[in-house]
Protein: Pescadillo homolog
Amino acid sequence: MGRLRQKGQAGAAKAYVTRSAAIKKLQCSLADFRRLCILKGIFPREPKSRKRANKGSSAPTTFYYSKDIAYLAHEPVLKKLREHKAFAKKLSRALGRGEWSSAKSLEENKPVYRLDHIIKERYPTFIDALRDIDDALCMIFLFASLPSNPRIPPSLIENCSRLAAEWQLYIMRSQSLRKSFLSIKGVYYQAEVMDQTITWLVPYQFTQNIPVDVDVRVMLTFLELYQTLLGFVFFKLYTDVGLVYPPPLDTKRDESAAGVGAYILQEASQKAEKPAVPKVKVVEVEGRQVSGKDVYKTIKNLASSTFKADDMDVDSPVVENKSGDVDEEFVVQPSKSDAELASSLPTLLSLKALPQSINTSLFAPYTFWLSRETSRPVFEFLVRSFGGKIGWPTSSGGGSPIDESDESITHVIIDRPVVEQHSESEEQRELRLKRKYVQPQWVVDSINAGKILLEAPYAQGETLPPHLSPFGEYEGAYDPAALTNEQAVTAEDESEIEGEDEEIEDAEPQNPEALQTVATAAVEDSVALRAAELAAEAAGIDPNTFEKEVAKSRRKSKKVPSNGVDEAEADMNKMMMSNKQKKLYEKVKHSQNKRNLERSKLEEKKRTLEKQKRKSHTT
Structure:
């Protein structure tokens, strides 16, 4: 007879534990438990059967792995948290009794925990840590932009600003920046460090307010972990390129709002170490005293002497050792491989033909000047990361390497409308004509394109072209440039469309049935749709009515299955899915339909703009 299994002692009931049971086992508060889970990377789990995991109860609760909770029980940080709890009680008792000396002694011996061992546990190698700093950088730059707040200590904001500046200095020094994007949320950057792609978001320099419903304690716990992680990563990156970490701060530059320029990059001082003089050791070889100096001189003479194959005596006799072994001389054999064949190997050709698409010195020949309304931290980082030189007015901060009257300035980044210059000297006019005035988007688009774009479309006061995201988008995303290429109509196509318009106009009946027929025919072809639109306009039909008929025809065409076999097969596959798979499938289809709807809206908007532009040209 087998052993009787007691209820709740095996299976899911033993593998999972509820949050309340975990807190009771660890003997800590809910806030400390959350902090431990964040620091150690432990998160809730979803069992297959919540009722079995909760020992028959169906009450809503949060589950964790029992092994993870047992792992937390031996955490040194938990011990420090318990010590801090006892310390807080002793300190409040001493303050209540007026024992100031004991309270001071307790404050000096306050328990403090470190997170170094957690970083080493979670990231065994440096590449693992480097691959996981995207969120850390976003959090650091977010807190660096926050104003002073009672909920956040000022020292924390200052430390985040320092870490953000150190990261930007390294990216500018190593020229690792690859892409950038100006979005509504902020500025996205993407860099390649040690073959790892790192993307982070920097908010704009506006006054940031912390919402009341945001739990700052959870964010501060993440920030505590991220600060320690970035300290390790930055130290490794700086020392690998021979720089001192942390970079020293120039207080005078910092007081003049120099920003990143307040930090000084110093080369690591490599002390010239004298070679250690080896102790003279005498060894007796074949009855002769040989010292270490003699061996060193012999090796030096052998290294300085040159041996040629012609000087070798090929016919020299074979030398026998005392042990009886025969030492044969090394005979140089000619290579049997063909040199031309080896040079034409595909591996060698592929290495030679590697594309050099990344131009890290894109702005090296140019000198930029920032207008006062542009964001200095953003464009200073962008231009310097690609080898350019940049200056700014004193209203944007101190530390500018050049003045506005510098003749080496080639581009002026300006973001305001054109204003006529009434009082302008001849020198100012010549200086203005030498320079190119561009809007800020030109810098970002040139970086993403990997080449210097034409300045005319980005000139001051011009309507800017679409600013597209350079990052990997989903398949089938809306692309205005590609849409323009697809819809580019030549003069011959225009004449063909006009001919079709005349045929449709001749056969255009003024009744709803004919309108529905034309709309149905126009759904199948984009050229026919364009021709039907022109015909409807010429016949005086309301555009809204025509669009409604086209939309109705499209819905009807979608309802009719194009391939009944495929539809039936899809239904059969869906029937074979589990409930979880069906829900996931429905979510995927919903997201696809949402993307397609957004794309169709953008395409419709594009067509409307093209139509308005075409009308303005004809008039």
Summary: The mean pLDDT is 77. The two ends are 97 Å apart (CA to CA).
